[in-house]
Amino acid sequence: MSNATIEQGYIQQYRANIQLALQAQGGKLVPFVDSGRYQGKQAMVVEEIGETTTRTRTARHEATPRMDLDHAPRWVTPVMEDWATIIDKKYDVVKRLTDPTSQYASSAAKAFGRSKDQAILDAFFAASRSGQDGSGTTAFPASQDIAVDVGAAAATGLNVAKLRAVRKLFTENHVDLDQEQIYMAITAQQEDDLLADIQVTSRDYSPDYALKDGKITHFMGIRFVSSQLVTKNGTTREVPAWVKSGLHLGIWDEMEVEVSKRDDLSYNWQIYASQHFGATRTNEKKIVRVLCAE
Question: Cys-Cys link to 78, which of 40, 172, 182, 278 (CB 3.0-4.6 A)?
Answer without folding.
Answer: 278
